[in-house]
Amino acid sequence: MAAYNAPLRDMRFVLNEFMDPARLRALPGCEEMTPDLVDPILEEANKLCSEVLFPINRSGDEEGCTIENGVVRTPKGFKQAYDLYRDGGWNGLTADPDYGGQGLPRAVALLFEEMMCSANLAFGMYPGLTHGAIAAISKHGTPEQKATYLHKMVSGEWTGTMCLTEPHCGTDLGLIRSRAVPAGDGSYRITGSKIFISAGEHDLADNIIHLVLAKLPDAPKGTRGISLFLVPKFLPKPDGTPGMRNGAMCTALEHKMGIKASATCAMSFEDAVGWMVGEPHRGLAAMFTMMNEARLGVGIQGLGLAEVSYQNAVAYAKDRLQGRAIDGTKHPDKPADPIIVHPDVRRMLLTMRAQIEGCRALAMWTALEQDVAHRHPDAAEREAADDFVQLITPIVKAYLTDVGWDATALGMQVLGGHGYIREWGMEQYVRDARIAQIYEGTNGIQALDLVGRKMGAHAGRYLRRFFHPVLSYIEAKSEDEALAEEFILPLSKAFGRLQSCTAEVARRGMGDPFEAGAAASDYLRLFGITALGYCWARMAEIALQKQDGEEAAFYKAKLATARFFMQRILPQTGSLASQIMAGGKVLKEMEEAAF
Ligand SMILES: Cc1cc2nc3c(=O)[nH]c(=O)nc-3n(C[C@H](O)[C@H](O)[C@H](O)COP(=O)(O)OP(=O)(O)OC[C@H]3O[C@@H](n4cnc5c(N)ncnc54)[C@H](O)[C@@H]3O)c2cc1C
Description:
Elements: H1 8-18, H2 21-25, H3 35-53, H4 57-63, E1 66-68, E2 71-73, H5 78-87, H6 106-140, H7 143-155, E3 158-163, E4 179-182, E5 188-198, E6 207-214, E7 227-232, E8 234-236, E9 242-245, E10 248-253, E11 264-277, H8 283-289, H9 291-319, H10 343-375, H11 379-414, H12 417-420, H13 426-434, H14 443-454, H15 461-477, H16 484-511, H17 513-544, H18 552-569, H19 572-581, H20 585-588
Parallel strand pairs: 3-6
Antiparallel strand pairs: 1-2, 4-5, 5-11, 6-7, 7-11, 8-9, 10-11
Helix pairs in contact: 1-10, 3-6, 6-7, 6-9, 6-10, 9-10, 9-11, 9-13, 10-11, 10-17, 10-18, 11-13, 11-14, 11-15, 11-17, 14-17, 15-16, 16-17, 16-18, 16-19, 17-18, 17-19
């Protein structure tokens, strides 16, 4: 039967060894982030995820959400699980203590996010969207809005949504038709249709706070004419409790490939009462200020699903007896050897593992820089960290969700036909993983963001925040006998390809933007693999120093996985570089009518 247990040892490795813990603890409010404090949090989080959320993952997928007269019900067990989650204070882990949060750094909370995504991604969508809404209100709300909504949203009593998408516009939000008319008393009346709204309606919380993009009557055309409005399902009474029902209704639930227990709602706003958040016509900018955090969260969805799929694929591969090892029988006492002896099965498992552990390290690095960008007392440090986050976020979102899809498909493959049928639960991970490549900006749009906005920003300043540390590391370690040949040489080859492709994409893109667009997805992947290569070289360096001793088995496995990454995944940068250098002509020359 399927199982999940958080990879606590590896999580502690990235938090305490791969990352510089002193850098985290030097930040205001993070002084106590020692293993003594963090380990028990992670252990409790694992209990909630493995014992409460994971057991309703499969049943939630089978039952899905239902709607009757606009009332949406989540599957059996979800309300009880949400109550436990809320009462345990998990919703406010990173939230501001002024609003009842615990003020933990993202670097720690990220590990809990991963566990939730592994255990039950559909469940995690409800608090996930709430966190986005909390971030927007915290940053752009009026003091009154913060006082009315944040305490209840941080506690999890009320949840939130992000209402951007409309039937005719997803990526191109400039086309939005929803309207907001001033009511004369400081409030607005919102009218319009939104689709695909996660957690738009459900039975987990007493109120739902929608953040809705709409246009004012005098709005300029395009994305510069969009404003952001707070539209509660129930209008709060003066005492703060939910009062009159507002005109924000769920008209239908989407039937979809995965995350079936997450209510994906078509929403109708009819003269709904709302209040503006931030400035007129600046709604999209307000949304974008919190996009980096949300996009890291979506990347973690890919990572979490890859991890749970890996765990179950390994368990099966050790148990399933088929054939004999190609290099001689390993278990003569059994009718056949377990499939884990076969090179191709090992290739699949090691691919999953090397991607997962590399992605966990990259995500942790990103989360730490987010914390530095928010908390560091020195403005120059904050700017440097924010530059890095700006650059790496589209890569984390797209690369980790691609890994989620590829790895869950490999996990299914390891089980053969038993992976494809429902019984083992492996096909659900594949279905659940797919959406993460699409929402929160498709991965194609992430790639355009990288080459179009991030690459050239401030004359390459963002790029330097990645290139400089990697180059310094390569230079510092290239004579290191233990590391040079196996780890630094392949890394420097990949890094050289990334440098050449960066220069070439920038050069060609300046002459013809189509060229930049044509290279974008391959370039993002090249960047992602190289970034993981750097993380793996550093992890190998740590592991090499700990090959003897109590935990030798952990560090030996880490080193073996690092070698696999260097030899079997990092060389993909060669073919990606060739694809990028080939240019965009071949994408252009086909006549539209010929498709
Ligand atoms: C399960 C689910 C949950 C969701 N949750 C929410 C939510 O809570 N709130 C919300 O507002 N939305 C939500 N969405 C919507 C989601 O964010 C959009 O589906 C997504 O942004 C893509 O928009 P679209 O579907 O309209 O595709 P389109 O924008 O029509 O894009 C179609 C294809 O064209 C490509 N494309 C479009 N424009 C360009 C371009 N300029 N250059 C290159 N390629 C381009 C895209 O990459 C994509 O491959 C959800 C969607 C789903 C399915």
